[in-house]
Amino acid sequence: MAIKKASVAKKYAAYEAILKRRIAELQERVARARAEIQAENDPDDEGALAYRNTNREMLMTNIERDVQSILEMERALDRIKTGRYGICVSCDEPIAEARLKALPWARICIACATNPNQNRRLTGLEKLSPAR
Ligand SMILES: [Zn+2]
């Protein structure tokens, strides 16, 4: 039904905007980190080399985590488009509004998230604290 679909889209428009903005921020951060890695020169002493390697490792870890988050948020945007947003992928119950506000990319409800037997499909991102 067209009216229902429109109201659902409107209902989640705020989350869509948050997700899109967050994706853009993360993409920018990833681009900056990649540029920083590429711009690094080979240091000429051991101390600088050790620092460079540690810094590079940290940047790579951050990039990996950010890329994972971007994927997770893009999946959430897909769910908004397909009408699956806000529905727990584990038990098919609606995800509470408060949880979506804190974790706009949440795929599972709080009950499934806190039940260790049911959170097999829980991703790393959902275990993290909410994005700002
Ligand atoms: Zn659930």
Major β-sheet, in short? Answer: none
- Tally of individual helices: 6
- In one word, what is the shape? elongated
Q: What's the order of the H and E elements?
A: HHHHHH
CATH class membership:
Mainly Alpha
Strand content: under 5%
Radius of gyration: 19 Å
The overall strand count is 0
Named CATH architecture: Up-down Bundle
What CATH calls the topology is Four Helix Bundle (Hemerythrin (Met), subunit A)
Please provide a written account of the structure:
- This protein has 6 helices and no strands.
- The chain is an all-alpha fold and 132 residues long.
- It has helices at residues 2-11, 13-39, 46-82, 97-102, 110-114, 124-127.
- The two termini are 36 Å apart.
- The chain has one domain: DksA, coiled-coil domain (Four Helix Bundle (Hemerythrin (Met), subunit A)).
- The mean pLDDT is 86.
- Helix 2 runs antiparallel to helix 3.
- The radius of gyration is 19 Å and the shape is elongated.
- Bound molecules: zinc ion.
- Zinc ion (ZN) is lined by residues 88, 90-91, 93, 108-109, 111-112.
